[in-house]
Amino acid sequence: MRRSGLRLRMGLAACVLLPMFAGLGRAEDATIVAIIDQARMVKIPEGTETLVIGNPTIADLTFLKQNNLMILTPRAFGQTNLIALDGHGNAVAQSMIEVVAGANTMIVQRGGARESYSCAPRCQPTEQLGDDTGYMSKVATEATAHTQRLATQAAPTSLGTLSKH
């Protein structure tokens, strides 16, 4: 039930978002649904010169003026607002940003301790905001050790000498 509800909200957000960012030149309310830890590109109205985010701890924005695009990077669960301004400081668009968990996330609650798993296709430990600090530390330590093992295996064991023949 939760997955279908998220898909429905994302589909509705896309329907509301398209007219808003079609360059109509007027501010309209819309909701952009973003999945935590997944950056996404969003079209902004033509003439936008400045982007303002209400709470930068919820989401971060990178303005790409070339193609009327911005990169939205979710940082924490919750809601914040976004205002697009033209060169004269007039609002050309307004929207809400809602940061949610991904559809393939499973949360295990053990008393007061929470653990997150990414289940695509098999459930594997992952760290997400709100997880128990001991669990997060264990997952991060394992990920760092794995990355270091890969770097060690990929590094050449000895440098050969090159000579001209």
How is this structure best described in words?
- The chain is 25% helix and 36% strand.
- With 165 residues, the protein is α+β, with helices and mostly antiparallel strands.
- The protein has two domains: 2-100, Immunoglobulin-like (Sandwich), CATH 2.60.40; 105-151, no CATH class.
- The strands form three sheets. The chain has a four-stranded mixed beta sheet.
- The chain is elongated.
Helix/strand/pairing class, anyone? alpha+beta
Helix content: 10-25%
How are helices and strands ordered from N to C? HEEEEEEEEEEH
Number of domains: 2
* Poorly predicted ranges: 1-27
Mean of all residue-level pLDDT scores: 79
CATH topology call of the largest domain: Immunoglobulin-like
Strands of the largest sheet, in order across it?
1-7-6-3
Strand count, sense and barrel status of the largest sheet are: 4 strands, mixed
Radius of gyration: 21 Å
What is the CATH architecture term of the largest domain?
Sandwich
Assembly status: single chain
Shape: elongated
| Strand count | 10
Number of DSSP helical runs: 2
Hey, roughly how much beta strand do the residues contain?
A: 35-45%
CA-CA gap between termini: 70 Å
> Which CATH class of the largest domain?
Mainly Beta
